[in-house]
Amino acid sequence: xEKILNKKNLPRWIKGLKxxxxxxxxxxxxxxxxxxxxxxxxxxLDYTSTVLSPKTIVFPQRExxxxxxxxxxxxxxxxxxxxxxxxxxxxxxxxxxxxAVFLMDKVFGGDFVDPYxxxxxxxxxxxxxxxxxxxxPNCFCLSVDGSPHSKDGLDxxxxxxxxxxxxxxxxxxxxxxxxxxxxxxxxxxxxxxxELAKIQADSEKNLKRQIKNIKKIPSLLKDMFESSYxxxxxxxxxxxxxxxxxxxxxxxxxxxxxxAVTSPIKGQRVRTWDTCQFPDFTMxxxxxxxxxxxxxxxxxxxxxKFYYFPERYxxxxxxxxxxxxxxxxxxxxxxxxxxxVSDHGA
Amino acid sequence: MVNIEDLRNNAKKLLEDGKVKYIIGFKKAANGxxxxxxxxxxxxxxAKLIWDPLCIHNLTRFLVDEKRRKARQKEPDxxxxxxxVKGCDSRAVNVLLQEKFIDRADIHIIGVSCENTGxxxxxxxxxxxxEKTVEKIEFGDNDEFVVTTDKGKIKxxxxxxxxxxxxxxxxxxxxxxxxxIGDHTKRKLDDSYKSLDKMESLTxxxxxxxxxxxxxxxxRCYACRSACPMCxxxxxxxxxxxxxxxxxxxxxxxxxxxxWIEKSPVLSENFIYHFIRAxxxxxxxxxxxxxxxxxxxxxxxxxLNKKLEKEAKKLFGYDAGFDPEAPSLVSCxxxxxxxxxxx
Lengths: 346, 343
Prior knowledge:
The complex is a heterodimer.
Chain A: E1 2-6, H1 10-15, E2 21-28, E3 31-36, H2 55-58, E4 62-70, E5 76-80, E6 88-93, H3 95-108, H4 115-121, E7 124-129, E8 156-160, E9 164-169, H5 172-179, E10 185-186, H6 190-203, H7 217-222, H8 229-233, H9 242-245, E11 253-261, E12 266-273, H10 294-313, H11 323-327, H12 334-345
Parallel strand pairs in A: 2-6, 6-7, 7-8
Antiparallel strand pairs in A: 1-9, 1-10, 2-3, 4-5, 4-12, 8-9, 11-12
Chain B: H1 4-16, E1 23-27, E2 36-40, H2 62-72, E3 81-85, H3 87-98, E4 107-112, H4 122-128, E5 134-139, E6 144-149, E7 152-157, H5 158-161, H6 164-167, E8 179-181, H7 197-201, H8 204-216, H9 223-227, H10 251-255, H11 267-280, H12 290-294, H13 302-316
């Protein structure tokens, strides 16, 4: 379903979404992040790039899995605590970030459906916005089978046509939101459709960065597990978790029992984000660590995104948002790392 | 003025003569304006070294990696490592020497002058030159920076875009070095703790509200810890494995290990993490500002460390990182030390 929404009607439409919590990019000092919006008039969609992606809403950093304790008669009691997510709409999602949700859906779906993930995911509607200009100088979505107007994972894609948005509903959830603002929408004219095509085509021309030989990367990596290249590429790595925690597709987690009272025992089992970049991620209880150094950990990040994941899910596990590049304190640049892989294999 | 060729020739000679096994310095980034750390082990690569006002990183941090790497090697190369340092970075070297974490013979220190200014705060730079694209930034002659943009060259007074820490820096030039590139310059210092004025004027409740909001944002990526040259503990209190597990560690010992802090990024745990870090840096932090710069969520961590630095100065007259022979603040006492806080 395709519609036109006059820009001044955007707050009115959002006001009408009474049954939903609304998230949108919101400014906090010098940075942007997604936040719950109280007043639809506050929404501005001229933001650059959020530090954290909508991953933080769909797959929060902390999820309580179960509570445990001892009953009065001394029996151990365990209660499952599935998250209760209110129906929510996330506005202003970058198409790459939505694709990341689409990729996480594959991980938490499939043969082993994760109820904690889906209890939230099913309640969340993603309304995307075409990146007419790249929100970051390090955007490279075209290299990883994405685009500034990609639709994967989105329920609605909005494209800024100046004084109005071209709105494409892509799912039933999207249609539902359109119905809640019926009178505000107009039918697109032939001119609108032409303008949309031009803006979307132009949006692809503005990306400054790309990975060379991306198609060959998975097969090149296959033969580079033992390469000393990883020592070289990871020399300046600080061993922090920025690249993976900010990554919209990284989804590794840890589980811990947080004991509030020891006797009689009471506490909860909690799932939190974890990252292959921390040394204790792979530490065995024997004390042996199969990934003992920075080189093996950088290699893991690259192999997972550009070899293991594509092999299993037919998609790169990288959406080209550039966050890991922009925010790395020492300028480790995944594009350069992969270009180095190409050179190495040449 | 720092003549970059002096730096390069010096590095080249060191490598040619085999005096150092490699040199840690800065090189131009292939992407973006900010230079990146580089590790040079071939004389011909010495030409890659650069020095400009965006050489922000405290490279002393990499001595921690070097020590770990050496410990893993069966027959490590025992020659020193060359290290390019600014004034603040050299103070970090002094703290590591003082704490016997490294040996003076392990390092060949190449000091570079901050040219009477310091390093540039990238956010201030972006704000100042909003409409322009910065292509290059250089030290100027008169307490200023020369910025080349797509719309021409501009001179900017250093006070406008200097990193906050540089405005309060008492070092200005490397305090320990084997060779110094550039001149001994000294920037006029008005007030070493001016950035704390606003925070100190707040009431206890207001400060609590401020830190609550800031630390709620923390995602515990530990970039602050990772960027810090002083955070070199093999076992950090925040990690799930906080003691060395060996083949001899019994199951019981593992089960009995104390968990000081939960992995959940909730306010209470975030507070514990940042407070432990701040307290552990008291009398050690040399205000290189790397923790704050690395933070992806813009948490103003420098306030915490600067405040403790001020306390150390006020109560004990102690400045970290100037004297590698002096006892460290927390491992010594003097008769005249204040004791009115002991009750």
